[in-house]
Amino acid sequence: MPTPSSPPLLYLEDLAVGDTFVSPTYALDAQQIVAFATQFDPQPFHMDAQAAQNTFFGGLAASGWHTMGITMRLLVQSFPLAQGLIGASAQLHWPQPTRPDDVLQVTSTIQTITPSRSKPDRAIVEVECITRNQHGAPLQKLVCKVVAFKKPQ
Question: Which residues are CB-neighbours of 54 under 8 A, at least 6 positions away?
Answer without folding.
Answer: none
